[in-house]
């Protein structure tokens, strides 16, 4: 299911329920979540902390199983199957026993690149994210934001048709963050893989996405699905558009209403 023609795949989740056990209590996290990412589409998920976004990603990645519901890629059921998507977990999960460069070449080799070429390309890719100087270091000596960038690069290079990125830029300073956003958009526009992207930044979601799902607090349901209307390639100052400001407010209101609901409970 790699991307020979450079096109994304359709990812479809239907009726996903998931609960965890805490002692004797059952704690529902996802409550009938259904969503779709069309081939080549960029879709973001926004929802309060603890609403179940990372849980949803672990289900899509096949690391855990839903209690109910189905996950399909291009129409085939893949619930519980791992290795089909490029997945960047919220906590950078680099191999501590490999150098930064070897972490990257690992992804390239997994995507079919020959070993020697992978080693060369790894250093070139690290140069593109401004991290060539640490290519021979081990991950534990990097800052959190640096680890996040390497982890992001590794997910990109996995070359699956569907990419799930869980707050990939949360630990970055504002300038590096906007550089990485621009870079992600360039790469996405070039090969149009399908992206499902989690962020707490409404602006980031509006700048990057074709559509946004707003989730409620746990147990998460889809509160609203919004189509982001700004044409591509997006202007760098798209945030000055009145429609942008309006949509930002709409999402804020939804999240606020959810919060008010929670404090009443
Ligand atoms: N393995 C687990 N066992 C028990 N509870 C869990 C487990 N994993 C997650 N949870 C709980 O499920 C809920 C949702 O967690 P999750 O990490 O999916 O939230 P999130 O939306 O990604 O939050 P954030 O925005 O803070 O990253 C939380 O209350 C969390 O404590
Ligand atoms: Mg999370």
UniProtKB/TrEMBL annotation:
The keyword Transmembrane does not apply. GO terms for molecular function: ATP binding; ATP hydrolysis activity. Residues 11-242 form the ABC transporter domain. This is ABC transporter ATP-binding protein. Keywords: ATP-binding, Nucleotide-binding, Transport. InterPro entries: AAA+_ATPase, ABC_transporter-like_ATP-bd, ABC_transporter-like_CS, ABC_transporter_ATP-bind, P-loop_NTPase. The keyword Nucleotide-binding applies. It comes from Cohnella terricola. Pfam families: ABC_tran (PF00005).
